[in-house]
Queue: 2 jobs
Job 1
Amino acid sequence: MNKVAICDDHKIVREGLKQIISVFNDFEVVADVESGEALFQVLRNHTPDIIILDVSLPGRSGLEVLKQLKIMNPDIKVLVLSMYPEDQFAIRMLKAGASGYLHKDSEPGILLDALTKISRGGEYLSPKITQLLFREMNNEGNELPHQALSDREYEVLLYIGEGKSISEIANQLSLSVKTISTYRTRILEKMHLDNNSDLVKYIMLHDLSQS
């Protein structure tokens, strides 16, 4: 029986995943937590075979949590399950060491397929992710401005695109308003843009809005 831990800040998502996974014969949910900090507490006493990890978490982002997990245990298996489409975060998460990436709209059968492949030492790559990886290899050296952002800067960019204020983003990420303002300044500088309006236009132009 493969032991699964779920890390997602929405209780209804965790409960839904537990119900779905409960009908899978080879998998058992042994822990469900709402943040990276809580996950690391669980890992002190438990060693799940697979961790299902969300991208958007309070405090440390899913990307930061994933990187720390891989430092702690390079062999740990992580399936990212996110509301963000593949072309927004999948490549970043895979580069950080994820074994697979699924959108939360995926069918339960696809989740089972992903968990099964990962449990057997493989990776789950949807046709869309495979296409993205191929495109990135062909476009190496010609990245778009947003692809040069750090993981946290990119996350802040997407929140700005959703229309969230600096204080709202700070609250969501459990960071100070000053820190988020600094990230915003860096984003504008790196992308050679002037203000939030320019950022929103860029997000719309490159279809980075959450959908």
Job 2
Amino acid sequence: MIDLALIGDLYRRYRDPLAKVRDAQRDLLRSNRGRLTPQLDDVEAEITYLLLREARPDVVMELGALHGWSTTWILSALRDNGSGLLHTFDIIDNVVSNVPDDLSLGRWSFHKGDIRENLSQVPEGIGYLFVDAAHNGRFARWYLSELFPRVAAGTPVSVHDVFHGKRALPFTEGAAVLSWLRGNGTEPFTVSRAKAPAPNRALLELRRDLGLDEPVHTGTDNPMIYFRMPESRPVST
């Protein structure tokens, strides 16, 4: 399971390399001020890095990159693992100019265009799926029925912008994904400040104890959910 106990253990195990990545991301943000807008808050970005370190996937798929903040976190994990290839899909290519060569070379492939028209480019053997694209229910229902069946059961998955509040808003991506997860008997993990204040506080305290509490950037909502792809996956309606 992806839960607080696992994440806490990963923070302790990878504390030193995570500290270096945090410093590098802070420098990257400073050097790209005005061109790179962080889309992940610190804790959810760190959890993504830690889960990638633990899973050690050969293939990662990122659906939605915008300016590349999540892309650079993912690529940092693959670099530190010493293996793995990231396939990023987006309808715009702003990310291309923001990802440093030392992170991208040999481990990154960018696919420009609407994923719904480019399913043939989706890689086989996805070992981690990261989703942060259109946040409407219609698009979510599409990827739940067309993309998720291509991902093996047990694969770690991240979906962003679900819990900015205590509940996902009706007709949104978050509502669609949460309904699908319930139908598959799966409870996602989140450290959303609004949805899960106790796990949020616990990780903030742990990060403080580990000397990882200096902000990389100012966002604090951490609305992402994490889960492992369930075994049984009926088509979303």
